[in-house]
Amino acid sequence: MPFTLKQLRYFVATAETGSVTLAAQRVNISQPSVSAAIAELEARFGVDLFVRHHAQGLSLTPAGRELLTDAKSLLDHADDVRLGAMGLGQDLAGELHIGCFQTVAPLILPHLIGIFARQHSEISVKLHENHVQGVLDGLRAGEFEFALTYDLGLDDDIEFDTLTEVPLHCILAKDHPLARHKAVAIAELIQYPLVLLALPHSRDYFLSIIYGLGLQPRVAHETPNFEMVRGLVAHSDAFSIMHSRPLSEWSLDGKRLAFLPIKEKLRPTRLGLARLRKLRPTRRSLAFAALCHLHFQGK
């Protein structure tokens, strides 16, 4: 027996809430109807989609996690078809879930979302900020359709659409002895302590750059907070290296910073849109991707 979109909606609601009771409330249907839909899907695919925990709800099996990603994509496309059938001349509508690397999100997305909201007022954008690994995990779990991130940690299942190359730069206090230079080498910076952005992938990536030059850093502080990195640098003779660069040259507590290009020739890092290769993009995501390309073409 073929499965139905309704069964998939009930399955997604159960997966996201971890409870048949909460899923039934979300989709406004009886609990037995939700349980029956899940049982029919499990019979149809010949696998268990959930692990049942006595008095503690449900959790997805590996097969359930894989189906969740595909089910969300299929339901998104079903919404596209429904909206298209209502009139090709009408605006796009619905929810668009976007993932974003957390240090990039506040520098780029507010401007883009503002423009997108004026162009497509019927689309509600939902943001999911995370570190690089969290963004990739979210894509694979179907939490969002695509993500704005760097080309770090990508496997073959991820398709990456480059928007721009982002050079590496160092951050120093404005009165740092090296801040008067036009550019600085990591070999020059290494005599000073390092403040390290300690996010998954990012931490190892920045350290690999330094180790790859045959240098040994002296790490003074590690923090997952981008603004804490800037603040710690601003109040010391330490340095940090980063790709994300705000327009403001001031730390949050009012200390001035200097941003200098790195002299060493390093592999260029790219900022772009990542998505699961096996999933077809919806019209909503294609509209936002087109806006992203237009934005960076003007840079």
From TrEMBL:
<keyword id="KW-0238">DNA-binding</keyword>
<keyword id="KW-0804">Transcription</keyword>
<dbReference type="InterPro" id="IPR050950">
    <property type="entry name" value="HTH-type_LysR_regulators"/>
</dbReference>
<feature type="domain" description="HTH lysR-type">
    <location>
        <begin position="3"/>
        <end position="61"/>
    </location>
</feature>
<dbReference type="InterPro" id="IPR036388">
    <property type="entry name" value="WH-like_DNA-bd_sf"/>
</dbReference>
<comment type="similarity">
    <text>Belongs to the LysR transcriptional regulatory family.</text>
</comment>
<dbReference type="GO" id="GO:0003677">
    <property type="term" value="F:DNA binding"/>
</dbReference>
<dbReference type="Pfam" id="PF00126">
    <property type="entry name" value="HTH_1"/>
</dbReference>
<dbReference type="Pfam" id="PF03466">
    <property type="entry name" value="LysR_substrate"/>
</dbReference>
<protein>
    <submittedName>
        <fullName>LysR family transcriptional regulator</fullName>
    </submittedName>
</protein>
<dbReference type="GO" id="GO:0005829">
    <property type="term" value="C:cytosol"/>
</dbReference>
<dbReference type="InterPro" id="IPR036390">
    <property type="entry name" value="WH_DNA-bd_sf"/>
</dbReference>
<dbReference type="InterPro" id="IPR000847">
    <property type="entry name" value="LysR_HTH_N"/>
</dbReference>
<dbReference type="GO" id="GO:0003700">
    <property type="term" value="F:DNA-binding transcription factor activity"/>
</dbReference>
<keyword id="KW-0805">Transcription regulation</keyword>
<dbReference type="InterPro" id="IPR005119">
    <property type="entry name" value="LysR_subst-bd"/>
</dbReference>
